[in-house]
Design a protein that fits this description.
- The protein has one domain.
- 79% of the residues lie in helices and 0% in strands.
- The protein has helices spanning 3-28, 30-34, 45-67, 73-98, 104-129.
């Protein structure tokens, strides 16, 4: 497995995640997140960024194994949607059940929507830029 592929995939994941979640949290759904009583006023960004890098590495390594030498946008999006369903189902469904959110339907729509956009962008970038076959 080429280091270049892991770097491209990881940067793609971090970029897609940071872009979508920033827009969701601070622009489009700012009121939604402001209404959550257990949120910090100033998030500890290094935890989120560290998690994004770790997830990006793991997801990229899994993609390189899963794609089996077939790297294209369709394959990247299929992979990202599959793993996105795994990640986003927790955020959208379990957290709505676990935490005392004001509006469960709104929570599910916001989290599932942002997750769907995030993983679609990630899958597109994976399929578009990871091109070299595994060694």
């Amino acid at each position: 497995m080429k280091t270049r592929n892991v770097i491209i995939g990881t940067v793609s994941y971090v970029g897609a995640s940071f872009f979508v979640q920033f827009i969701s949290h601070f622009v489009i759904n700012a009121d939604h997140y402001a209404s959550i009583a257990f949120m910090r006023e100033q998030p500890l960004m290094y935890f989120g960024l560290s998690t994004m890098f770790l997830q990006g590495i793991v997801l990229t390594v899994l993609y390189l194994k899963w794609a089996n030498g077939t790297f294209n946008v369709r394959q990247g999006i299929r992979f990202a949607w599959l793993l996105g369903a795994f990640f986003v189902s927790y955020l959208a469904l379990v957290e709505a059940d676990k935490y005392n959110v004001q509006d469960i339907v709104e929570w599910v729509i916001v989290e599932a929507g942002a997750g769907a956009v995030q993983f679609t962008i990630f899958g597109f970038l994976l399929g578009r830029f990871v091109k070299v076959k595994n060694e």
